[in-house]
Amino acid sequence: MTQTPADLMKVLGRLDLVKLGRVAQRVDLAALLDAASRLDDRQLEQLTKLLQEAASKKHFPLLTVTFSVSAPG
Hints:
This protein is an all-alpha fold. The chain has a domain at about 5-55. It is built from four helices and no strands.
């Protein structure tokens, strides 16, 4: 598949470079892209669903609870 400079500019225009930088600090982007490029369409669809589900889950703050127990009588 041949990519033109216009195609490349479209892709780059959709990227959030701040988020890309955060991901790059945590993983090897070249290896990640290489692995993703080897997935078939079904696998990519499953991965996309997994990532969307993970991003949509609500994270609730941890609750700190203290219980007091008194001795009977």
